[in-house]
Amino acid sequence: MKRFRFTLLAICLVLAWLGYHDLSLFFRNPDPLSISISELEQTGAPREWLNIEGGYLDLEQAINPSGQVETFESGPFFVPLVSNNDNHSISVVIETRRPEVLETLKRYVLDFDTQEARQSFLVNNRGAFYPQRNITGMTASWLTSTANRDKLLQLAREQNMPVNPEVVFVSEGKQPGKFRGFFFSIVAFLGFIKFIQMTNKKEIAPAIGSSEKES
Description:
Layout: H1 2-28, E1 33-36, H2 37-43, E2 49-57, H3 71-74, E3 77-82, E4 90-96, H4 99-110, H5 115-124, H6 126-129, E5 132-139, H7 143-158, E6 163-172, H8 180-214
Parallel strand pairs: 1-2, 4-6
Antiparallel strand pairs: 2-3, 2-5, 3-4, 5-6
Helix pairs in contact: 1-8
């Protein structure tokens, strides 16, 4: 019983921490913050939920994080977002599953047998490889997103890509959870109540036994 109580306490503490994290994230980000790509490159992300304006997706430097063909069907790809087509340093990268991005990359990588054919396709479809898009999503502020950011940096080093070590990694389409933080907090609160009740019962039981022996 003692082991169960402390297991319950440990679970409640984890849930309370998760609830606090999600709720603080939710209240810090009631709406996506609009920011230009130039400002984001220069100053970094002031908040987690962003609407990035005026950036160009650089599909020519897109990274397939899994290295598998299936990624071309459902994604995601890690794609640099830059302020112009001549940027040499990458400070913002988007995790995206946009259908038009997947289709362009699929054709570029899988439909041609020679590098010359790929280069010709790139030249003839320059606009598709550098589309200007406004991107709304969340920065890497949690375990999964942070792991993806670390993976991005590792892959970029392997491919000699000029990625800033402080790169802003944004998961497109992601937004703060509205209910998960409240759910975790409520479950943790109820668990703490249960733990206190179990502890009180354990303390009362020996006291009753001692009283019966004395009488």
